[in-house]
């Protein structure tokens, strides 16, 4: 018994030691294919001929079964067939990228390109991204790219273009057009007073005007404060605990009013995502929800294709610093590892994925916004989002910066939920925030 | 398996046990309602789930949830991987951990407390802090470059991660067994090592069985370690594939599909549990050695 | 019994070697990291900046971490009592000679195998739902309308909702551990004392319980280890942003290591390491304490 045991253990320990195969390498064998002609869409001819034994290793944040993942897989296949550049596509999922990408790159794993949210890539992964200005100029990427998004990409990376956006999204009020029509609300509310007006009509028609889930409730206070004093001040309030700012008191009064007039869902303080959006908004009981443009896609199985989606930017407030031209808009972005040896090929793949046919396919399959401005056909469910997005000039970060202080977010969330549920008054809200408790 | 037809029902005995039956039945009923909802939801549509009609099937049974979930992943490849990883790991775990636990339980020696506390401390450290730095080091050494070494590393990690747990679990089992057996065996001329494998090891069967079942299910369901270390699809265990399926259903709002995927993940684990607990426990009667 | 040095070394060494290879480097690294400010958890040491005890100081002075530890304590203590006693009760019932023992055992253990994602969704969207939830239906049926209208997932109730849901899934696991301990005790002991006229309670108090001391230690240790790692359920009950009612040290640590949800907050993996050290020390303390309080006795079985 002991002999067998010893043998097994020795085997277990010897094999890994002798299996060192030099530096970490990709697991795909690089085969040299005969076809060396590449059909790049590039304008100029430097380095245009792709080496047919180059492999681009692409770690994607999607799961292979998500619509985005399926489109990317198809696109990659077509790309390889067209250009001869091989792609090692790995679907790592959210966890695999958020938690596993930087350790892998620290360990020297060959990863040429990856994607994630615009903020995460340009802050958390900033040290690993390559400057893409030259490549972008070479392939004339900005000719058809959304200027607002490209500007945002430059902005979060301190002025340099280090990521290419796709799957854009915008955060605004989404509403059920059928309810608006039935309640007699014409147009969309552009100011807070108009919003209250609309709520009154909707309530009179027997529907819940506004609902939310715990996951997004901080966005409501974030936007409200940012409308009043601008995002920078919001970040200041939250990080330096300046809760005696009059904007905070104003928010509390406004939302306490919403509660007392019955304009908020009775379940709002207890809604755990996705209860609010799935059981109230999607089923046609509630009218409005401050959410992202991914919402129609998330609830399409519940709403069916006939649901008429409307969209408007968070209303302007009296005496406010920013108005409806400001909102959080962003995208998923693709970036290239600064140590990548095949950056040119990787950028070609990026172009292939985010422009033209496959960008259109992505938009259709995932009910998302196309990244390529030459794809003018948006999904029907998002048609109302187009004018909202076009009118945006100022970019908020997520929740307008109200989540900047990790130690306070949970407290803010608890107090806002209690305020919206009528468990505390406006004064108590301000007092709680000053004391830092919930 | 007991043949109920032949054993006469001792009603007097059963009535004494009635309170026990009632308590268990209430709990079991509750469990059926909750898990039953999950299963019903998996045959339902997302809309029906969120209108509260999951149990009423207004639109009939939807088997396409399962078909979609099954076809979306290359499940059969993953199954073999998982089975191999888990079986090898569990067997080696017991071979390595049981002797260690026995020695820790029976003898006092220098470092005994330190070892036990070290094991417990290791269990308290969050997995992220263990897996990610390890991955960096292992990857830099180059152990993940070939398919075979990747698999060996995976199995090695599955074993290693579970050693503290298995050892600590088994220590108390060995500690509570009477020393009279070893004394009797010593008198009979049995060497201590043989005493362990022939007498003490079988005596701790309930504990060993239980911990093996737990280990098997843990390794079968191990997601984070596998995600970080399994470089390519062909060496992925089933957990990664199926959990990625569950995640993708969640992100696309396909809750009915998600529940179908969950049932697909749950069934093999449950069947394995039944198989392990019946075959292995059934083969070893609790008697063994009478004092 | 004669101490056989060779056997001790031979039996302990394989486990020790593997343990050292896997855990030694990460543990030492974690302890070191807790004294530095680090951005990425796998940054090389050259990118660390020394901060001494600042991380631990921050943990002591951050109210949110205090809330997290308080939540953890309540989960460990109250949840522990609920799960241990319910598990023990079921284990005793199952070994008292009832029929269908295997079926009961399998059914009670089932929830432990079902993925937490499904269980949490089921609890949140079915049992606790204020619109069509199971609890609401039951209470309405019993005409307990005030109970029926409680929002089980709002700030006042969320912690208890979470705790109960979690405990439900854990009972089966700990019941199995109790079972393996009780099954070791020979049946003839129970037969002997039934002959002597002892009823079920007396049997339990005087025979089962003392002989289970070792299993009690195992259960407490395992429960403590899984409690300090409480993470997935918190995340499922509080998506995107954390709640004061569901936050646990692991959740807080995750925020420090990977950033908070969608907002890009400042990260400090060294602070995360400090939390890891604190949790590990807690578990070791509990382990040492239970060993001291429940000394192993050598019973003749």
Helix share bin of chain C: 55-70%
Number of domains of chain C: 1
Q: Biggest β-sheet of chain B: count, sense, barrel?
A: none
Structural class of chain B: mainly alpha
Read across the widest sheet of chain C, the strand sequence of neighbours is 1-2
Instruction: Name the CATH superfamily assignment of the largest domain in chain B.
Output: MetI-like
- The radius of gyration over CA of chain B amounts to 24 Å
Instruction: Calculate the terminal CA-CA distance of chain B, rounded to whole Å.
Output: 27 Å
Describe this entry's structure for a reader:
The complex is a heterotrimer of chains A (438), B (291) and C (301). Chain A is of the alpha/beta class. Chain A contains 20 helices and nine strands. In chain A, helix 2 packs antiparallel against helix 17 (356-365) and helix 19 (409-420) runs antiparallel to helix 20 (426-435). The model of chain A is unreliable at 1-50 (pLDDT under 50). With 291 residues, chain B is an all-alpha fold. Chain B has two domains: 16-62; 73-283, MetI-like fold. In chain B, 75% of the residues lie in helices and 0% in strands. In chain B, helix 8 packs antiparallel against helix 11 and helix 9 packs antiparallel against helix 10. Chain B starts with 10 loop residues before the first helix and ends in an 8-residue tail after the last helix. The relative contact order of chain B is 0.13. Chain C is mainly α. In chain C, 69% of the residues lie in helices and 1% in strands. Chain C contains 14 helices and two strands; from the N terminus they run αββααααααααααααα. Chain C has helices at 5-33, 54-61, 63-94, 101-113, 116-127, 134-141, 145-148, 158-182, 187-195, 200-211, 213-228, 232-237, 249-258, 269-293, and strands at residues 36-37, 49-50. Chain C starts with a helix and ends in an 8-residue tail after the last helix. Chains A and C meet through helix 1, helix 4, helix 5 and helix 19 of A and helix 1, helix 3 and helix 13 of C.
């Amino acid at each position: 018994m002991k002999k067998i045991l010893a043998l097994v253990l020795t085997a277990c320990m010897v094999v890994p030691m002798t299996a060192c195969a030099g530096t970490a390498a990709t697991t795909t064998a690089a085969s040299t294919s005969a076809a060396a002609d590449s059909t790049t869409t590039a304008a100029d001819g430097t380095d245009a001929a792709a080496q047919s034994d180059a492999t681009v290793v692409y770690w994607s944040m999607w799961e292979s079964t998500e619509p985005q993942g399926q489109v990317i897989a198809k696109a990659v296949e077509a790309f390889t067939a067209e250009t001869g550049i091989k792609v090692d596509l790995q679907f790592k999922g959210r966890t695999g990228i958020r938690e596993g990408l930087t350790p892998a790159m620290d360990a020297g794993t060959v990863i040429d390109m990856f994607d994630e949210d615009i903020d995460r890539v340009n802050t958390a992964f900033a040290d690993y991204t390559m400057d893409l200005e030259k490549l972008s100029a070479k392939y004339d990427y900005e000719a058809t790219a959304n200027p607002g998004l490209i500007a945002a990409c430059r902005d979060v990376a301190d002025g340099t273009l280090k990521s290419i956006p796709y799957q854009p999204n915008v955060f605004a009020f989404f509403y059920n057009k059928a309810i608006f029509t039935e309640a007699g609300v014409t147009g969309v509310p552009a100011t807070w007073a108009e919003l209250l007006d609309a709520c009154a009509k909707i309530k009179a028609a027997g529907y819940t005007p506004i609902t939310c889930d715990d996951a997004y409730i901080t966005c409501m206070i974030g936007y409200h404060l940012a409308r009043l004093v601008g995002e920078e001040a919001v970040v200041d309030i939250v990080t330096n605990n300046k809760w005696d700012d009059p904007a905070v008191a104003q928010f509390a009064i406004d939302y306490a009013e919403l509660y007392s007039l019955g304009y908020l869902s009775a379940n709002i303080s207890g809604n755990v995502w996705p209860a609010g959006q799935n059981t109230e908004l999607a089923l046609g009981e509630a009218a409005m929800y401050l959410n992202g443009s991914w919402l129609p896609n998330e609830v399409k199985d519940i709403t069916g294709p006939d649901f008429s989606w409307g969209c408007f930017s968070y209303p302007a407030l009296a005496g406010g610093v920013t108005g409806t031209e400001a909102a959080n808009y962003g995208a998923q972005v693709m970036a290239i590892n600064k140590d990548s040896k095949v950056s040119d090929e990787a950028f070609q793949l990026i172009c292939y994925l985010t422009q033209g046919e496959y960008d259109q396919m992505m938009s259709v399959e995932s009910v998302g916004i196309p990244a390529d401005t030459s794809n003018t056909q948006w999904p029907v469910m998002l048609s109302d989002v187009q004018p909202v997005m076009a009118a945006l000039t100022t970019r908020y970060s997520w929740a307008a910066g109200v989540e900047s202080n990790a130690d306070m977010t949970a407290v803010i969330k608890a107090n806002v939920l209690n305020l919206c549920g009528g468990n505390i008054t406006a004064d108590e809200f301000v007092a709680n925030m000053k004391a830092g408790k919930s | 398996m007991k043949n109920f037809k032949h054993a006469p029902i001792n009603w007097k005995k059963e009535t004494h046990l009635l309170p026990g039956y009632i308590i268990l039945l209430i709990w079991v009923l509750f469990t059926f309602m909750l898990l039953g909802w999950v299963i019903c939801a998996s045959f339902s549509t997302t809309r029906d789930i969120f209108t509260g009609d999951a149990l009423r099937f207004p639109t009939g049974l939807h088997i396409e949830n399962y078909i979609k979930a099954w076809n979306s992943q290359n499940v059969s490849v993953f199954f073999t991987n998982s089975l191999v990883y888990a079986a090898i790991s569990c067997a080696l775990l017991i071979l390595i951990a049981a002797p260690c636990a026995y020695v820790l339980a029976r003898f006092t020696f220098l470092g005994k407390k330190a070892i036990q506390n070290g094991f417990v401390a290791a269990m308290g450290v969050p997995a992220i802090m263990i897996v990610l730095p390890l991955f960096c080091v292992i990857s830099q050494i180059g152990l993940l470059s070939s398919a075979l070494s990747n698999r060996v590393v995976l199995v090695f990690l599955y074993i290693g991660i579970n050693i503290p747990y298995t050892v600590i679990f088994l220590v108390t089992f060995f500690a509570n067994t009477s020393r009279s057996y070893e004394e009797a065996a010593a008198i009979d001329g049995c060497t201590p090592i043989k005493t362990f494998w022939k007498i003490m090891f079988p005596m701790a069967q309930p504990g060993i069985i239980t911990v093996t079942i737990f280990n098997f299910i843990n390794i079968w369901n191990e997601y984070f370690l596998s995600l970080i270390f399994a470089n390519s699809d062909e060496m992925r265990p089933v957990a990664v594939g199926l959990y990625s399926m569950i995640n993708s259903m969640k992100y696309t709002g396909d809750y009915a599909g998600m529940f179908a995927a969950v049932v697909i993940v749950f069934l093999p684990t449950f069947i394995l549990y039944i198989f392990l607990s019946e075959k292995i426990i059934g083969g070893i009667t609790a008697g063994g050695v009478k004092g | 019994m004669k101490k056989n040095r060779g056997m001790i070394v031979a039996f302990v060494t394989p486990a020790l070697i593997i343990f050292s290879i896997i855990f030694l480097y990460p543990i030492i690294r974690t302890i070191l990291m807790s004294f530095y400010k680090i951005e990425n958890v796998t940054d090389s040491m050259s990118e660390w900046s020394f901060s001494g005890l600042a991380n631990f100081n921050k943990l002591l002075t951050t109210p949110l971490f205090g809330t997290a530890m308080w939540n953890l304590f309540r989960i460990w203590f109250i949840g522990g009592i609920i799960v241990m006693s319910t598990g023990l009760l079921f284990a005793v019932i199952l070994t008292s000679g009832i029929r269908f023992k295997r079926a009961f055992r399998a059914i009670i253990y089932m929830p432990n195998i079902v993925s937490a994602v499904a269980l949490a969704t089921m609890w949140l969207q079915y049992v606790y739902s204020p619109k069509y939830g199971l609890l609401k239906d039951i209470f309405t049926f019993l005409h307990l309308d005030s109970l029926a209208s409680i929002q089980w997932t709002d700030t006042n109730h969320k912690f208890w909702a979470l705790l109960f849901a979690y405990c439900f899934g854990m009972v089966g696991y700990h019941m199995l551990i109790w079972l393996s301990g009780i099954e070791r005790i020979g049946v003839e002991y129970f037969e002997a004392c039934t002959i002597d006229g002892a009823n079920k309670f007396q049997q339990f108090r005087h025979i089962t319980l003392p002989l289970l001391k070792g299993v009690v230690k195992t259960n407490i240790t395992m429960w403590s280890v899984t409690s300090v790692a409480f993470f997935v359920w918190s995340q499922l009950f509080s998506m995107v942003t954390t709640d004061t009612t569901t936050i646990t040290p692991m959740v807080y640590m995750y925020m420090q290591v990977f950033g908070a949800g969608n907002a890009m907050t400042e990260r400090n993996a060294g602070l995360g390491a400090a939390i890891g050290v604190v949790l590990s020390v807690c578990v070791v303390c509990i382990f040492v304490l239970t060993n001291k309080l429940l000394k192993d006795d050598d019973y003749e079985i």
